[in-house]
Amino acid sequence: MTDQALPGQGPGTAGPGPDGAGFTYQGAEPELIVVARAEARLRAGTEGIRSASGADISALNMFLSDEQLALEPVFGNEERIRSALPAQPSGPADGGGGGRGTMPDLSLFYRVRGGGERAEELTARLAALPEIETAYVKPGAVPARTTPQGAPPNLRPEEAKRLKEGAPATPDYTGRQGYLAPAPEGVDAYWAWQRPGGSGQDVTVVDVEGAWQLGHEDLADKLAGIVVGHPIQDIAWRNHGTAVLGVIGGDRDEKGITGIAPEAVTAAASFQGIGSAAAIHAAAERLLAGDLLLIELHRPGPRFDYAVRDDQRGYVAVEWWPDDCAAIRWATAKGVLVVEAAGNGGESLDDAVYERRPDAFPEWWRNPFNPSNQASGAVLVGAGAPPPGTHGRDHGPDRSRLAFSNYGARLDAQGWGREVTTTGGFWDRAGDLQGGAEEIAWYTDTFSGTSSASPVVVGALACLQGILKAAGLAPMSPERAREVLRRTGSAQQDAPGRPVSERIGNRPDIKAAVTQLVPSSVGSGQAEQYWDELMPYPRELPPRLRLFVAGAWRNLNHPAPEVRQAVHAAFAGGRPDVRVWYSDDEVVGLVVAG
């Protein structure tokens, strides 16, 4: 979900695509969803639909046959789905659909095959059948990305012909990734990398969307490929997915960019052909408690009667739709951390329009954006401005809500919504930071939207989960992750016309979050060795004085010149008396006696 808005203006004011042109994504097809009645106990098979309860479903089968339609269980075999429900809190019965305190029955959701352009017409006719509770159409899902301001710079002919084979090596662009920096500018990935597990070790992240360039030169180390679905053959989708994976898990080497959690295993799940809810569920099935699932999609919402718009006005997070919300709740009940782009609709999700249940939604549906209702459990992410001057541009005060970002009480955190440097091209063309003929070497400086904000939050969470695992502690649950994001981090700031009351949440601060998550104890001991790190690696790390104390190296960042000199002199004298107080690997106190 990328945003194209100018600072202080609505989405797409000058046109959402490059040079003001409208944008399109191939394969963004509507989905016709049917919710069956629980008592009918429908079961789909090779012979069509039958009723496990013995109900007469001849009218349903006749209708499907006459209209040349087929019902396909959204979440797979109904009996298997019912037996695989995660443990859930007790709550009132609600007819099997779901409700506050209960898990929706995933076996009741079906996708209609064969409806084509007749989807809207068919909903009422399907809902009138006795075995069907309701039917609704979901608009096509698209990335929550906005196009960057203006068109990318024109490439010189020699650049356009650039071939990776024999061409100069890709430069190191990490210096342009301000989101890696210490808080409040970034999430403090550099600090995380110095801690055990802090690069995302033993954590898996699956990105749910449309397509990716899996052969990219900077996604080689930890990319596990596609776990479900078939990628959409469209360059705009591919550039989008590639950019997302780069922010999270770009390789940590001397070229290109580095992901926030470069040691996390990343994978992809495409919704093409199976729908977004099925892709979310199938991806979650492949993950363990504590792993992460990112949803990089949004859809036209009720503000403009679900109309597809080039400017993305009124687009909302996918959890608005009952089957998507059910899939997310299933994943979070399993312990998977689901992170979801809030959408680029410029909407207050607290508005009364979201309290009105759409006529076609099930009776048990409740507004998921209202915190007083049953939560999906996902982390909902808004888009904040990067620090002014990033890449020579100013989008408003740092951490202020960007005009296109949805907002409201439901949002948990924000990430950079502009100027995100990562892998992939510019929208539907070659990279604006590095282009050329080889797509595997494209880079962009202008990834944007709640699409760029969400992987920033995912990367921070992956680092935190890795630190917890390395410390022998349980990873965060979905509820705990949302709590930590809300209680820590760099606070949202006001902007003209966009006050902090229009909530998008805090920017994650990994270091501050660790203090909430990991019990700290201060130890002390004599330094046995020292290492004055004059040239840290990576270069973005602070200068450090490293002291070997109590069997491990402890780091003193940004040592004062007089401290450095005193330690040098003590060890040069042959009988050093350097007393160190430390918390984990960080020096918190130092006394040099000789």
Q: Give the fraction of residues assigned to helices.
A: 10-25%
CATH H level, superfamily name of the largest domain: Peptidase S8/S53 domain
Number of strands: 22
Q: Output mean pLDDT.
A: 89
Strand fraction band?
A: 15-25%
CATH fold-level label of the largest domain: Rossmann fold
What is the overall shape? elongated
The Rg value, from CA coordinates, equals 26 Å
Q: In the residues, how many domains can be counted?
A: 3
CATH architecture of the largest domain: 3-Layer(aba) Sandwich
Give the strand order, joined by hyphens, for the main sheet.
8-9-7-10-13-14-15
Which spans of ≥5 residues are poorly predicted at pLDDT below 50?
Answer: 3-22, 89-100, 150-164
Count of separate DSSP helical elements: 12
The level 1 CATH classification of the largest domain is: Alpha Beta
Structural class: alpha/beta
Give the termini distance in whole angstroms.
Answer: 59 Å
Q: Sheet with the most strands?
A: 7 strands, parallel
Organism: Streptomyces lunaelactis
Protein name: Serine protease
GO molecular function, one term: serine-type endopeptidase activity
Pfam family, one: Peptidase_S8
